[in-house]
């Protein structure tokens, strides 16, 4: 028994993190002396339907498939899709059969979270947006949450260990617990302790809604920290919030009236795209949690579409190797891979692995993925109001 309920990397890489029927499929095929060369595709929807989602999780998927006797083509991470395959695998079926469970998990969960992040990004394109959702998931998932948020265009995240893995610095200042530890009426002591103790590189953002009215605490924070105060954060629980937009505007008004319009205002607490649209002209930044970390996974499936060079598929799935395209008008198109694509269309599928060797690191580069996401969002009108 392990200390925590975590399936480790060795089990994932070795194929033990699989559904039992894949092990039994291997046993049956080996007994029969069969190991056909197949083409398999990862697909959510067979035909484009206009409901775009953001592709993510490719980095982990490639790490899983690397070193096998297979070729892999994939849509680069950070591209929008709404039908047809996002990945194509060609090789002996037994070279990757037992990896299907982990492969789909990597792609499904990350794509769902990245899509939710992009929902928020396009809702407030000029605001700072940070991921605060790590607390809603199993600790072993936190790096995937934060990476997906960045792929969807977020500016940063809160989880320290995820930052260690991703090579990024975690963001964040103080929780309500800090003020509560000093006691009611002693908020100033909490803010000053933070200012005196925490590294100078960390912005002085005071949390201003622990015990009293937001305006009251904001003005007290300004008085306590003076010019050292960079901003304030309002995290008022929904049950006490009332008209949050009105509260924020009142805070901004009172700051401006006292000559403190340089103090930034950030908000957090159960926010989603609709909230960001409503508040984006009144605040400087947002912390978004559960909307991203609790997003539904994309319902990907892996299906064999060709066996020993011949089209093959189960009922309800399209046979034959396929390609996917971004058309000149920003739409998505699917066609057979051995046919010409639509006139003026861009093929989205690119080589990722050849003979087990990774051939395109840029396909899952995180910064490049975020750039692709924003460019695709504009091209297809994603989230247009």
From TrEMBL:
UniProt-listed Gene3D superfamilies: Aldolase class I, Quinolinate phosphoribosyl transferase, N-terminal domain
Annotated TM spans: none
Assigned EC number: 6.3.4.21
Alphabetized Pfam families for the sequence: QRPTase_C (PF01729), QRPTase_N (PF02749)
A GO biological process held by the record: NAD+ biosynthetic process
Record domain Quinolinate phosphoribosyl transferase C-terminal: where: 114-303
EC primary class: ligase
Domain Quinolinate phosphoribosyl transferase N-terminal: 19-111
Keyword Transferase on entry: yes
GO molecular function, one term: nicotinate phosphoribosyltransferase activity
Superkingdom of the source species: Archaea
Keywords linked to the UniProt accession: Glycosyltransferase, Ligase, Transferase
PANTHER family given in the database record: NICOTINATE PHOSPHORIBOSYLTRANSFERASE, NICOTINATE-NUCLEOTIDE PYROPHOSPHORYLASE
Protein name: Nicotinate phosphoribosyltransferase
Source organism (scientific name): Halorubrum lipolyticum DSM 21995
């Amino acid at each position: 028994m392990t200390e925590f309920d975590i399936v480790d990397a060795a089990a994932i890489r070795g194929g033990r993190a699989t559904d039992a029927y894949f092990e039994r499929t291997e046993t049956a095929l080996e007994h029969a002396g069969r190991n056909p060369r197949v083409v398999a595709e990862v697909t959510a929807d067979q035909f484009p339907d206009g409901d775009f989602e953001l592709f993510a999780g490719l980095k982990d998927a490639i790490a899983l498939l690397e070193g096998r006797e297979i070729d892999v083509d994939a849509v680069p991470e950070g591209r929008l899709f709404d039908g047809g395959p996002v990945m194509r695998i060609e090789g002996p079926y037994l070279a990757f059969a037992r990896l299907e469970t982990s492969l789909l998990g990597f792609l499904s969960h990350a794509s769902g979270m990245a899509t939710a992040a992009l929902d928020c990004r396009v809702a407030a394109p000029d605001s700072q947006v940070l991921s605060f959702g790590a607390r809603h998931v199993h600790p072993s998932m936190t790096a995937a949450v934060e990476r997906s948020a960045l792929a969807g265009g977020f500016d940063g995240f809160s989880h320290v260990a995820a930052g260690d893995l991703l090579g990024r610095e975690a963001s964040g200042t103080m929780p309500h617990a800090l003020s509560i530890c000093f006691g009611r009426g002693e908020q100033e002591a909490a803010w000053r302790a933070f200012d005196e103790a925490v590294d100078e590189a960390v912005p002085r953002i005071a949390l201003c809604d622990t015990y009293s009215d937001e305006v009251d605490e904001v003005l007290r924070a300004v008085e306590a920290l003076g010019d050292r105060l960079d901003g304030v954060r309002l995290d008022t629980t929904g049950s006490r919030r009332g008209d949050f937009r009105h509260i924020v505007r009142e805070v901004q008004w009172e700051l401006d009236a006292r000559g403190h319009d340089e103090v930034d205002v950030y908000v957090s607490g159960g926010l989603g795209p609709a909230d960001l649209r409503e508040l984006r002209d009144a605040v400087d930044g947002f912390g978004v949690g559960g909307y991203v970390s609790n997003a539904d996974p994309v319902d990907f499936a892996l299906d064999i579409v060709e066996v020993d060079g011949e089209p093959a598929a189960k009922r309800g799935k399209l046979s034959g190797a396929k390609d996917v395209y971004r058309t000149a008008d920003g739409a998505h198109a699917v066609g057979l891979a051995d046919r010409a694509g639509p006139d003026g269309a861009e093929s989205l599928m690119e080589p990722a692995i050849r003979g087990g060797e990774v051939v395109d690191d840029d396909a899952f580069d995180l910064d490049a993925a975020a750039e692709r996401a924003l460019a695709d969002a504009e091209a297809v009108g994603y989230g247009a109001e």
